[in-house]
Design brief:
By secondary structure, the chain is mainly β. The chain is built from 1 helix and 8 strands, in the order ββαββββββ. InterPro entries: DUF3455.
Length: 163
């Protein structure tokens, strides 16, 4: 394990974590942002995401994010209970259902927004209070549903900072 106490969160406009919260994990999420298309002439509508989570705490703390290897063991999963309720099931921490509290545009328009998520009591068995989705790559829906089919999946990666 690595000491995360001095690891600075990436600069953003999101409200920082409260002073009484400690960073317990930085997870790398790799998966898909999922969208649905009601018609070929419509625009994709978000229906959540699915991702495997990998422990990136030491890699981020030491500035070696490239050291998270392809054969790394997953430490958990991120999925949605319904279209608006993200869930994180992390080995050693438990299950956390959250709600979106805040959003900001990612630095690149091709990447999904950065988020601050707040834990909800219902469905949560972990001590986790907040999760930030930061340093996103990909995941943005196509501009239209034309030629897409009913369900659209777009690959993405993100860092999840767990407090």
């Amino acid at each position: 394990t690595c000491d995360l106490a001095a690891v600075p969160q990436p600069t953003s406009t999101l409200t920082p974590p409260a002073a009484d919260l400690s960073l317990v994990l930085i997870a790398l999420g790799k998966g898909t942002q999922n969208y649905t298309c009601a018609s070929a002439t419509g625009v994709p509508s978000a229906i959540g995401a699915v991702a495997q989570l990998f422990n990136a705490s030491c890699a981020v703390a030491e500035g070696n994010l490239g050291s998270v290897t392809e054969d790394a063991s997953a430490i958990g999963a991120h999925f949605f209970v319904d279209n608006t309720t993200p869930d994180f099931d992390i080995i050693g921490l438990g299950n956390t259902e959250l709600k979106k509290a805040e959003s900001m545009a990612a630095p690149q328009a091709t990447d999904v927004p950065w988020l601050r998520l707040e834990a909800q009591q219902q469905g949560t068995t972990s001590p986790v209070k907040q999760i930030y989705r930061l340093n996103t790559v990909g995941g943005v829906a196509p501009a239209s549903c034309e030629g897409q089919g009913e369900v659209v999946t777009v690959d993405y990666e993100a860092q999840y900072w767990v407090y």
